[in-house]
Amino acid sequence: MDHVQLFTDTSLACSKLITGRYSTSFTLGIRTLDERLHLPVYAVYGFVRWADEIVDTFHEHDKAALLADFRRQTYEALDAGLSFNPVLHAFQAVVRRYGIDREFIEAFLHSMALDLEDQSYHPDLYNEYIYGSAEVVGLMCLRIFCDGDAALFERLREPARRLGAAFQKVNFLRDIRSDYEDRGRVYFPGVVYSRFNDATKGEIEADIKADFEAAYAGIQQLPRSAKLGVYLAYVYYLKLFYKIKKLPAARILGERVRVPDNTKLLLLLGSYFRYRLSRI
Fold first, then answer.
1. Sequence-distant (≥ 6) Cβ neighbours of residue 84 within 8 angstroms
2. Residue 98 and residue 275: Cα distance in Å, rounded?
3. Is 121 helix (H, G, I), strand (E, B) or coil?
4. Transmembrane segments in this chain: where (predicted)?
């Protein structure tokens, strides 16, 4: 038995377990990808989730020190091709296999560091944060989906960024109350929480709608191995966006909008039939 491969396979299995425990929706999306893409995407999610846990969960610890140590371990793993942190070992293996850009990793870790500070997000910082926290995650996955096809990657780079931005902005809108009450954050530039109203909400939604429209053209060009999984994530977030859009600003500040599990199943079935009929 090749024990090095066993170690890597076990590390990848740890990232799969993390994904399943933390996100049933993301797990469902991954399962609709071609099977050979499952473990690499789990590895990306495991890395992202662990960093996010540092900044959002361990309030009784020095989160800046924890994140700095995580960053150090990440680059040591990338340089050595080995880590005894299974999440980082799985991630470095996927980074090396698919040529994931270190710039994406650095941008992501930078955005995580921004979450450790009380920020007033002016437009440039807002765009910088979204790029690092969401767009580059989509670009990491796109490297996996394109599997060495550099021309395809470049063609789909911008739509992938717009899809990541749409997802993140929907999250910001859905979680505007909890982000403010639990973390003291309002991500949208120029938005004062106490004065959040329907007009402000409408401006944000117009921006999100443009991102979704730009992203769909890219989904149509994805390799068939990735198309259904990405499209399912797209329709799920689009459904969530439309639910939020129908509600007045006061309702968004009073409740967390979600898509019920039975609706998710219907979205999966509808997406599958569109995929089979080549209507995506």
1. none
2. 26
3. coil
4. none
Percent of the chain with pLDDT over 90: 81
Confidence band, pLDDT 50/70/90 cuts, at residue 118: confident
In this predicted structure, the answer to whether residue 75 has a pLDDT above a threshold of 90 is yes
In this structure, what token pair is assigned to residue 120?
A: 């007033």
Q: Is residue 1 over pLDDT 60?
A: no
* pTM score: 0.93
| DSSP SS3 for 263 | helix
Tokens of 40: 């690499």
Which amino acid type is present at position 208? I
Contacts 24+ apart (CB under 8 A), 99-107: 99/143, 99/148, 100/140, 100/143, 100/144, 101/139, 101/143, 102/78, 103/136, 104/136, 104/139, 104/140, 105/74, 105/78, 105/136, 105/140, 107/131, 107/132, 107/136
